[in-house]
Design a protein that fits this description.
heterodimer; A: alpha/beta; Gyrase A, domain 2; Four Helix Bundle (Hemerythrin (Met), subunit A); Rossmann fold; 6-stranded mixed sheet; 45% helix; flat; B: alpha+beta; FAD/NAD(P)-binding domain; Elongation Factor Tu (Ef-tu), domain 3; 6-stranded antiparallel sheet; 4-stranded antiparallel sheet; 20 helices; 22 strands; globular
Amino acid sequence: MPRSSDTIAALATPAGTSALALVRVSGPDTAGMAQDIFGAPPPPRHALHGDYRAKDGRLVDDVVATFFPAGNSFTGEDSLEISCHGNPFIAQTILEDLFARGGRPAGPGEFTQRAFLNGRMDLSQAEAVMDLIHARSERALAAANQQLRGGLGRRLNDLTERLLGALARIEAYIDFPDEDLPKEDRAIVRRTLESLASETDRLLATSHYGELLRDGIKTVIIGAPNAGKSSLLNRLVGHERAIVSAEPGTTRDFIEERIIVGPHCLRLIDTAGLNPAPGGIEKLGMEKSLERAAEADIILLVLDTTAPLPTLPESLTKLLTPNRVLVALNKTDLLKAQAFDIKVYSSLKSVNVSAVTRAGIESLVTEIIRMADAFQPTSQDDVVAINARHADALTRAKVSLQTALANLAASGPVELLASDLRGTLAAYGDILGKVDNERMLDQLFATFCIGK
Amino acid sequence: MGASTLLLSGNIDTIAQMSCNPAIGGQAKGQMVRELDALGGEMAINTDVTGIQFRLLNESKGPAVQAPRAQCDKKAYQFRLKHTLELQPNLQIFQATVTGLLFKAGKVVGCQTNLDIDFLGQTIVVTTGTFLRGLMHIGQNKNEGGRLGDFSAKSLSSSLTEAGIQLERLKTGTPPRLLGRSIDFSKMEEQKGDTHPTFFAFHDTRGPEEMFHVEQSGERRIGWAPGSEQVSCWMTHTTAQTAEIVRANLSKSAMYSGEIVGVGPRYCPSIEDKFVRFADKPRHLLFLEPEGRSTNEYYVNGLSTSLPFDVQLDLVHSIPGLEKAQLLRPAYAVEYDFAHPTQLFPSLESKKVENLFFAGQINGTSGYEEAAVQGLVAGVNAVNKVRATAPMLIQRNEGYIGVLIDDLVSKGTREPYRMFTSRAEYRLLFNHGSAEFRFLDHAKTYNLLSNNRIKNIEAKQAKVTHWVDYLEKTRNTGGTWADAIRRDRVGAVLPEELAKESAPVRDEVVYRVSYQGYLAREQRQVEKLSQIEKIRIPADFDYPAVRGLRRESALKLAEFKPMTLGQASRISGVNPADISILMVLIGAGAVRARDAS
């Protein structure tokens, strides 16, 4: 049985100080725990206002708790939601108390996993919830919600239905060669396949946007040593006071921070300074910085206005295109600051800032938001962010559509054309669930008068 | 297999009588007949010997979707098969109508007949065709029977219902039969047979002694060499007048006046259906098919109807060439009982009643070929059951027989089920020429072919494998021989030694080489899926106790009792999340069982 043998608990709201924090509990011991904590069996699906008393009897906080019996909860198991005051210490105490009562910390995504295993959601919903959990910004949240409501599902269903129509047109002539069918018109099939290919492409294009939403927009800070890169990073991080994580870069040469600017999540990456004449180890670090810059969605080029314009390596200047680069003219607070001649970079947007006095930081953030905005698809209903698994399936769909189109162009064997279309169908089905062949037959018999 | 068997039929003269059109094969059906031949079935030989017109369908398309079709001499087909049965060792034939089954402790033990003679048997195969509470409609006129002039099996249904088997109604129809000398063929287009007929049976792996045993018995001869002296079919079409007659009389049709409750097939609509559902199509094609060499009767393929007789007359006379045609038999619709095939194991044994097997129309199928393959599987498994040996289970990836049985027992059917090549996921692997190789293991395991033929098939297979390997590995000008075949397709030159091999070997080698990429891909899919096909679900698995399963799925699974996870995944309404849960549970169970042992 998937009946989980243990009870899990975790903080459902982001760590940090906020007005309220939500602690979620799920598993077979939940009802027992709730009765022990509040002294009475909790009424199902009703918010109960009461005192949270720890195992040793001391009062922790006054909380609002809601009990969801198995079958009516998110996970499909008995579960309890406790809203306490947002002080991190209180939430932590409650969690520790729950662990003392036999609960254990939930692994990442474990609530969703249980919901999935208990049949409370399908794979695509489960994935959407996982993304929701990992959503780091408002936009990501919107995309995850959209998918959950079936935005992706609706579009794929539409593609599938049209593909079935094209397949029915092919299959009719294979399975009913002796029938009185109208002359076969493969141009209709070709037009359908072409539009499917381009829409599959459009969905695939959201793959990178999806990555941006989940992982953040990769923003690489680059500049000469002592241009003020690290201070600027600290200033940006401090500006919003919303550090999502502070993890070291993948190599010791980098510092990476996640910040929220406007509706966007940024992965802010600080790099080693670009020295025009680097020595051994430094050279290695610089190469890595350049690699980072090449992968960046946004490059934040920091220039020290008190120093001469540095000579940047050619491999970097190649990367400096207006839609991805923002120049921060730093140290404008200093007397030494000069009317900096940046005509070399005249096509690039620049902002005067001082990492020390914080002057110009607001403008810099505004510019970053504007650039980040450009990453989202133009139409609002295009907020469909596909994940890596979807991208893999859609890529397979696209490849078999292209093979099918090549077959059509060459008037190749029709059963191979059908085989490729079935490949496409299976690929769409990998996201939405298997497509029953009956649906193709339904279209076939609706389109053609079959039967002698 | 050598089991002692009794065949009961209400009228043994109508064994193998073609109730509908006098033709065998066609798309998917033709491939199934060849599969049947690979398992020792009789249909292929019988068709070859009694066929009067042979055509290979889809000749312009690739080998995977080519299928043989033959018009047969209806009476010759029927009597030769009866004769074959008479010569079959261990088989007793007796004329009696089964009126009920005898049960003991949830198992079937025998049957009762209209002659008040009871017969006992360890296993029973029920093949009722359209006779189970058969009811024929011609307009408002109703006659009990499974076929015009024949009876209806009335009381057997209640016996099945009492045993807990759910029955429901299906409907099918058949067109009028006309007198040939009243037809003006000069107004029609002739359709001739192929100059080189494609036969159904694998003649190249048979010794002369197992070719035509009826003919060789010296008792009776069909009188013509297979494929010789072919006769033609004729094409005509409906007219605007036909459409008008149909529309004006729609309310008199049994199907449109609510007389018929059974569900009819979408692929074999009545002429009423065609004009109603495809109103913008001005005319419909009709084929006149000869019913035999020694009869002047013609079958009007495409004119199935349940309109009253007087309307049928007008209808027929509105068609070019049929202005003065005489009707020998009217068209009619027939309704009959079928048992939902989801009540069967893939062995075709009933889940409700042990030792009871079903085959043919009673399982919701339509067509001689669909019925024949089930008859073979049910028959083989009825013997396996008696001997307590493992049932012959034909998988979906082995051939159309596997697809048919899996569709029936996993998904059931709402209309008379007919096979289409598009029902098969691995159609390219199911080319008709490879049937013997695909079913060789079953044929050996269950002793379905002579040792001599098994030896010949193995030798043929070795040749095919050798040549495919040779072509792929041996270089010729500008790449391997295989590259050249894939490049030049039809015009490709073959090595001299291969060109000397028999046509079946050559064709199979060229097919495998030309479609190599696609065949390999389907093979990979088969292997991938066979993982979940292999995961067996314990027979006593308690679905409702699984908390994760949605209620709908749990009920469906509990009802269908799939044997493997693969089968479970094809049950409608069971979604991938349900399968994931089952996989986790069964996987966990298997691990626990292993740890415990």
